[in-house]
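User: Show me sequence and structure for the first protein, then do the same for the second.

Assistant: Starting with the first protein.
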Amino acid sequence: KLHSDLDKGVGTVKYTLSGDGAGTVFTIDETTGDIHAIRSLDREEKPFYTLRAQAVDVDTKKPLEPESEFIIKVQDINDNEPKFLDGPYVASVPEMSPVGAYVLQVKATDADDPTYGNSARVVYSILQGQPYFSIDPKTGVIRTALPNMDREVKEQYQVLIQAKDMGGQLGGLAGTTTVNITLTDVNDNPPRFPKSIFHLKVPESSHVGSAIGRIRAVDPDFGKNAEIEYNIVPGDGGNLFDITTDENTQEGVIKLKKSLDFETKKAYTFKVEASNLHLDHRFHSVGPFKDTATVKINVLDMDEPPVFSKPMYTMEVYEDTPVGTIIGAVTAQDLDAGSSSVRYFIDWKNDVDSYFTIDATEGTIATNELLDRESTAQYNFSIIASKVSNPLLTSKVNVIINVLDVNEFPPEISVPYETSVCENAKPGQVIQTVTAADKDLSPAGQRFSFRLSAEASNKPNFTVHDYRNNTAGIETRRNGYSRRQQELYFLPVVIEDSSYPVQSSTNTMTIRVCRCDSDGTILSCNVEAIFLPVGLSTGALIAILLCIVILLVIVVLYVALRRQKKKDTLMTSKEDIRDNVIHYDDEGGGEEDTQAFDIGALRNPKVIEDNKMRRDIKPDSLRFPRQRPPVEDNTDIRDFINQRLQENDVDPTAPPYDSLATYAYEGNGSVAESLSSIDSLTTEADQDYDYLSDWGPRFKILADMFGEEESYNPDKVT
């Protein structure tokens, strides 16, 4: 209700209302000032409204008082139930977890005012899912309530959670949600074989590496906890078999490692062990996570093809062997109980197989044509053996026949050589190393020998040096060769092999005379090159002379520029010696050289001699006398150094700036004064050396030495 002090109740005042919800949510009686709500209010939609009211004159419409602002606050009531905004929930917990293991935390939200009453105070409880799980009424944390829940017994649980406001009191509003909890697997079950003995029947014709049977151990666990590894227990008759794990079915696949033979052994027995790959140390106390079963394999007899005595046959025959010569034989047997005869024949694939024949009954192999090793050195074909009783059962074996060589070809030079010799060659110089090749199949240790032919051995031009390692060197025998006299030399070389019968050949080598430099590098091997300068044209000679003239001009210009640059450098050096570094190479005279500089002034400032001319540098024509300020007696070392620095700064004849002037100054003020005999006013006889004993242990030897001389002086009167 609004009321103005100016309102006398006679109807002269009118009340107006503006702001949030004016006219839509709230209305005002213009005469009495009563404010009414014209529709329902929801605090969760809008918790407060800001309004402005004013009293105006009915007649003049003018405000009687300033506009007033006030707030209408909506008071909360419990009209909203708690809601699980994230529900329904999905959670998991490992099986065999202890009581109180954490599963999940749920949260409900109440839209009511949490600051007013208990409308928003939520309490959690389980409506469905006990006694397996429990929930904290305040925090909403779900935990396990029973120990050792087994996934293999029950895997899925559905828990119904309730959230109630008003602190769970009667009359409060409630909301619910569902939590689906899954027990995850742990390796708490070992693998177990459903039976202790497995019987398998395997034909003896099974191939090596093929699968001959499967066995399976059952593990109720899931995923990697159910992975099983199978092994054959050592010590049994399982060395012919192997077992692997099928990753999809977790079955043990038994494979054959070696061939089976019913006639040799009809049955095998061995044990197989199944164990888990991923063990859980928490369940070691349950027992060993492995199981063992026995496998019995019965070998079935099959009608098998003949078996050759060898997996492969290798034979040898000399080339040019007469047709029909037997070179070897193959043998195959029927190992079945009712042994059958065997027939042999060649597996024809190409025309090469026609070079040989085989006896169908005996299995002997003979030549059918003349063989040439140089044409074909080896023959490789297959022989098939079949049973007479069952021709469809056949077996095959490879036969390799090596054709042995008969020495019928002489050795020859392996490659054509382009041999050359220099005109300035010396005797004994190797100009070419040659090798030989033989078309025959050289046996191990065969050697080739090299020599000159009889007609060439008497000529004094070249010789052949056999190195005894199937190579030879062509050596010179003359001191120099002339291309003008003879350009080409033909050298016959005889090569022999060491096989039987001995074969030899004469190979003629062509040697060309070439012009070389002093290092033996070939410059030209053509005869025309000797007379090349004579045939030069006039234009070519003019071009050569023009190039020579240009080169001479360039050389002259270069020398002139060097001389001009050197002259300019010397002039600049004389004008400003400070900008140059001058190097002096003259050697001093040692300690006796006293003309270069005055060393007396450095030793004792009391002795100052006149300045002398320096000999270490060349003086200029302009020279100023060195000005030396007088030095007082007992001058401090700092004043002495400053004097020398000032002298060098004003003296133009002083060394350049990059020179180092070193001054030695012994100083003065010593308690014992100078030990030097220079400038001494007394003679040696007048000296008293007793004070040396008072200087300490470092002067003990010196005191003893001078004390002895004083004590043994015969002229001294005591």
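Switching to the second protein now.
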Amino acid sequence: QAKSCHLSAALLGEDSEISQEQLYELLKYAALGRCHNAAQPSWCRIYHQSHLAGVVVVVLHEMSQLHFYRFYLQFKHLRKVFRHRFTLAPSANFPVSLYGEGTNLSPQNTPPGLISTSSECITKSSDLQCDPIIQRYGEKKQGLTSYTLTLEEQKKNDYPIEGSPGCRGYISTECDQQRTDSSPLFGLDCEMCLTAKGNEVTRVSLVDAQGRCLLNELVKPESRVMNYRTRFSGITKKMLLPVKTRLSDIQTRLKKMLPHDAVLVGHSLNSDLQALEMIHPSVIDTSLLFARSEGRRFKLKFLAKAVLGKEIQCEQKLGHDPTEDARAALELAQFFIEQGPTKVAELNLEMLLTAEKLAEVSQNKAVLQSQGCGFQEQLNEPPPLSKPCFLDCLQVTGQKPLLLGRQGLDSSGPCQSNLSTSNKQILQRALEDVPLSRFSIIQFSLGPEYLASHLHAGLYEKVRSKLTDMLTIYAGPFEENFCMKSVKKEFGRCGPIQSFTVVTETFQPYVCIQYEVLEAAQLAVENLNGAEVAGSCIKVQRPVTAAMLDCNVLIKELELDVENEGVIYVAGIKKSLTETDLQEEFSQLKDLETLFLPKDLQSGKHRNCCFLKFQKTQSAVDALEAINGWTMKGSELRSRNALAPGHLWRWIWQTNHSNGKQGKHIFYEKMEQLSDSEQDLRKKVKKLDHHIKKLYRSLQSNTLCVVLFPGVNSTHGSQSGLGLMGIKDDEGRSAC
């Protein structure tokens, strides 16, 4: 019996923004598996990838997550089928990001709307004799002793040397210089903090030639810490509080662990040995091994990616992992020794680094040009080749990817491509051709008349305005001299408050409260309407505006959203409680899978609420009953079903804080009829959702389907994209 594929992605919370590179990582692995250096994505997992029937990517051209929020009710199929969603970082050059960075485009021989790349995986230099690596080591492969630093090189690069005035009190490893080409290699890396003494070690990692971790130890500095350098070291004050190990302990352990002919490998290893206050005679420094001209050095992160195909020092992680860095440096040295200088020089690292920098510049640069429905206009200044496009790799395996869209395409490139003039025609071709292709990209569009920047601005204002209204409640009436503090405290138990103002235009005072999360506003309406607060029986309601007439319908649909299944919201949590405290308090709840504690994206402090995700829907229902009225550390908790998934929560926060704006204080809204253009747009969106539904139903079981709202990144402004994904199961649903 064929195994069922399924998808796992931990995307609950405000950190679920996925970069274009991470998206490429997912598509490459889904299409190729472990062939062609494809690895499991870092942010999600595909189980039984080899059993995938195919990959279908639906691109909604020139649309952003803004469209999804504005037409949430119209996207009925999308929100009911795809349980995995993520915010997608906008790109100025989305097609290049989708196919893979570093595609080598040549306008005169590239089919319109397509990206073609060289099938060469390594670019050779026309004259290797000029390469600094060849100039330093020659062309022939040599043993490891040829790459260890000489005594003069160690002195020049500030390595601790026996008898040097600056190394008094340093401990020798007592290893001799009788190394041979079969001497054992050990990778070493340290993390340091800044103390009153200077750089002191806080963590040490040592790995053997097989990459096994022999030592990974936290170290207590001798002097007072001035800066933990947490961003780079990952070390915090709290981590070091229970630590008893001192530098002398580490020195003793290293002396015992290293054999007499050990060769230490590291990246800028001199800094590590200086911080360890140790002297070792045999070293290979990968920052010098991969030689560059004019004394420049490649970063370890770049070398790991360019040479080994490994991602290290990822931005998602807090600080560097010394074991990971030690292993990367060791593997780089092993690669250099095994392959030899010529093979390393042929990688053309300088060109790869230039391509990487150009790609970064192009991502941060707004594209000043009008964009039609096709891809070609976006490809005027492509980045040079940095690595092969995975579509080329697919073609090598005999699989010809399919691309369908409105742009004129021919089939001479790496894709089968077809010209269609309408979404209906694209759908018809997709229903015929997608079953015949292992990898398909289908591009739909609302049409050029809906892509103008002023329409995006209008949509943004309407969505922002409606979300602000949904986050806002009015409560009252109160007595003239009511206690504001007690009122704010009572409403604060529903969740974090963005703003609190007193309305004095009425006969008796009311309060206007804007919350930071939708669940808090809904809890206030449900729990406090008709309650007695500050000595008054009050009414709690949202603003009455034209846009809010369907608020209850929208709240209901958000609650039933497939992404909110098994997720509940809990408010009234004391800010003094840590995530560990909450994990312990909620540990008695059955089937609890994830706890997400929202943080202020500016201050980093957590809010007085959290989200709990359960493995089973019934467990979430049981937890709701148990938690309501539950007292935790003297604070009574309130809870309800979740309404806003992580990506929407993040968008609300950024909307309310962008450019210092708090979201307009809404007392009224002009009662305007929907314009003809917006009515027409709603119909088009509804039809588009129906097209995707029809396409999805036609897919084979075990097909990965990814729907992308690419976002907008232009001189007129930037709007994040949105991704929805799932693997279709036997019953036509998106499997977890």
